[in-house]
């Protein structure tokens, strides 16, 4: 009994005490937004193996939301060099497949090269490292504050990843500036130029811009016990700045991962915990399979084995579904427990032409909507009843919807898809129309008196729309679009 | 065993992970207050059915405390139209009785009209909605961030309600400006004029000022599947702005609620969970009874059935009581668990003439004291030993006492009553005089050395006042006031 | 079963709901630090019994970290008069031994004078007070927000205590200014002059500067039921300002504590819970022993019996130890549960000459390093790869290392010792070199591609340094220093 209590307590510890993430409030008046914009990235940094695009985090709507947005493109065999951030990140894989790793300091290196056969005994070094994860299109990846992340594209299709960095998180004890700490290279961190605009001092000239660059050589030689040549490489000395944060790996990476299964279906995902296979070392070329392994129940889910990704782009069981209107899928901390620390969640939606998302608001979060495909008309309304946005959101643009602001959307394309990043780990949508909406939850007479309606009109308001969040196009529109 | 653990875990989840509320800090130097004032409301907005008065939230003592204060008066048959806020609210009912509802999006509509008898079968629509609660004088009502609230006065006595909005709560992810999002009407939200003073942009002219007003008509027609007339009403088009946030309901509201019991006593409160009665639909005229129903134990207490009100104005068992001095009653998250999310608590006090509240301070909260009846002399001292307030607090005025500032009070009326709103969900008072005070908790020799006293003087300091927080008037004063 | 659940729930309550402490973020751009400095205290206030030195909290590196630092020296028989703060404190005892008390309002007075023998019956007053704790060199003491603290030196060796006040804690609901609320005396609180510099208003002249000074005499006479003379003493009237916050106790304090055991060893610490002895009243002269008593298991550990100190200066079982290099000891909320509320932790390190602390960063905390003995060379690097500090840290100076900034150190003395205060309750170090470092956690090929190295060079990087955080001096250096 006592043991049980102790256990239950320690579980509580595991779950709650580690690193609670709560959000900071925006600065005074930062959220008095009379106009929002659907924004494209405004900066572009080419690298050897790809491209990093950023949105200006000093834009008022991002400052209000306390977030920074960026988009990374990895070409085939491109490696995003390891880095960490001063704030939690949520990454959506818009396109492509590949590998990623998130380093948890202090956790064991659980991926090990197999014992060599005896004739090769002379080779003494056997590599081991922390878990390597496979990602694919439609994945959400959660990266905690200060944990090193790397990504790699082993496929022909370029990987496109959208990343939200939640600088307003209380996990960030620095100021609101998004910071990338690179472990390697000579490139500037992608948000640095915006700091400069903000009046930050001119950077001093320096060999290398990574976290090792600022140490003196002798410190590193002693700390790593390696020769000067290797230290120079670490510090990014003499490296071409153009090489950048994304490097090309000649011949591709060879990574220890479990063998993949050859299957065409994506449902494999739910099954891949059931089998265990011996790890092997091989070159990954163009497989589509999955290769994660993790403990899934509450007891095994420690920091070291925390699951960091979940697919929301193509789930066979979406949370909201109407064949005529579309589908919406959400990921919260109930789906991906690590989001409880990050205090982030996400939503993926896909709308058919002329289908509508009814007016609604986020009770407890700011939201950044990024359009993946097609275009839609969105309207956003503030507390004064003013339209702060009425326009199109097209693929590649992002729109911030602050907490409690009302928003509605109508798809203008055959298939409008989007991902929304939200600054809270639990969904808190309140709908303003349709079944189970806020209006529906009010007594009939309150509705009538509130809106100055006859009781039969109030009844229509409460009952005419039988749909919930998604409304299919009207018959006339369907024909028109057919 | 495993199940038990899982259950216990999920309970932890329920309790802690949902929406933790913590407070933001005040801006730099905001709390260097050398003078506090007992403030009256400085703005007054008349509505058809009542009155909203507000205190300027940009006043420095409210900015330091991170709160906004307002007072609402509802005449008979007046409905405060539904609205939600970007921050949690704590409402004290100074006078009157009535109904209120707080909408929890996603929760079921548990109040249903009964099955009609067969002869009336033609009537197809049966109304259902979320729980309706009865409130009465002395109640504290807790309203979470982003949840829609409505209130209704079905009695002859005007309802007067004092509301504290905790804009400094971390549940508010916008800036510190208090915002009301109205579901209906053409009135400005009550705190808008202060935003303008702060340099916010001039509002654009608009038909309607509610959350529906900013949407285009066709969006709403599609989303609600109703005709243009109803949409116009929703948007508050052509509605007289004078009608306002509080409307008069002709003939009164008809609300589904359990039948009330005819009892004179107020103790019924504690018993009304014991009985179940069949819901019925009726016009509420002037009953005084109670009509809530809710689950009370930890397992049933989910978000959907969370209890939102508790009476502190007239409890038969106050927390502190001295017949000669008065009584003090507190409500914390132990009394009303929903306050754990809101991170708010409250205190109600009633003092006899010349009775004293000894010098004390709030360890972990800011406090806003609102005088309900009579007047008292208060003194407040800051960390430099300066008197930042020494004056009278009379009925209808509010005084902010920042965290850790010391405060004492003496009633100047036969009955001085007040309510104090506190920005933490647990009580954290430290008393500076009387039994069990901070001085009493120190060793005798420490007291003597600290205050430069003889040991027998230190003994007097520790033991002369046998009372705790409330000190009755001295005999001489009693006679004088008799 | 139900009981068990209820119990487990209430434990959760105990642990989590009481007063969660999270940190505020720094103001806009506050952490764009291009240069850090190893700072000495810049103000010095002499008192009758000792000395308070402070660092300017408006210094940018402290503003970024959201902390204030001070150093207190108590001479023999000196009492630091009781005070409380608007933010949690972590105190490290650099030198000396003595007594301290932290008052928990509402908790019982558990230290009682014994029943007098019958012949002395005339003496009616028996003193009782809250727990008195013994501290010694190397202790960390945790003081929650708003709790009164006093300290006393009963030994010949002066007590030197370093205190970090975490004004960025969300337990502080006021602004970032560190405030001391003194219960007694006529001295200014030690951080007041920095407020003035910040443009705070000129202080009004006042008799006394303590929390009682601002109340009118008649209020205090009534509240305490004592005569005017005692009230004058309370208010610090006519007291010499020079007397100050630390007073000399003639003849020493007489405090109720359990009798001490005469032992030379310091291991006694771990045993002193096992025995119970009858409390006695005596003059403490120059004992070295221990005299705390507290409940230690989860069930008994309530607020009232929370353990507030732990020794990290001379633990026989350090967390990291290498006889050639040195030792590091940490205290987190796992060692001292009260730190979970304070959201603070600490680290104590001791390095041999030329030993190295490898480059590493704090994932989730700001850190303030205070050098206790000797000197070391430190380097700190920001996200742009710039060296923001490369210099010596010598005994008595403090250096701030912001979250995620990389830092390394090399001892220049035979014995360099330091204490680091961290603004999170759990350790979150990530090492950039050595076994189990971030580089080691990456796959070999990722290391090679990241740093543009041959695979065998990458192997060296991963495996050449067999040490973890501490690296012993090279052989050549050892000889040189021998």
TrEMBL record, chains A, B, C:
The species is Vicia narbonensis (Narbonne vetch)
Example GO molecular function term? nutrient reservoir activity
Listed InterPro entries: 11S_seedstore_CS, 11S_seedstore_pln, Cupin_1, RmlC-like_jellyroll, RmlC_Cupin_sf, Seed_Storage-Functional
Family stated for the protein in its record: Belongs to the 11S seed storage protein (globulins) family.
In this chain, the stretch annotated as Disordered covers 243-300
Q: Subunit composition?
A: Hexamer; each subunit is composed of an acidic and a basic chain derived from a single precursor and linked by a disulfide bond.
The task this protein performs is described as: Seed storage protein. This protein found in the seeds of many leguminous and non-leguminous plants is the source of sulfur-containing amino acids in seed meals.
Name recorded for this polypeptide: Legumin type B
Q: Which UniProt keywords apply?
A: Disulfide bond, Seed storage protein, Signal, Storage protein
**Which segments show compositional bias classed as Basic and acidic residues?**
275-297
Which domain of life, per UniProt?
Eukaryota
Sequence ranges assigned to domain Cupin type-1 in this UniProt record: 36-232, 310-459
Signal peptide limits? 1-21
User: Would you tell me the Gene Ontology cellular component terms?
Assistant: endoplasmic reticulum; protein storage vacuole
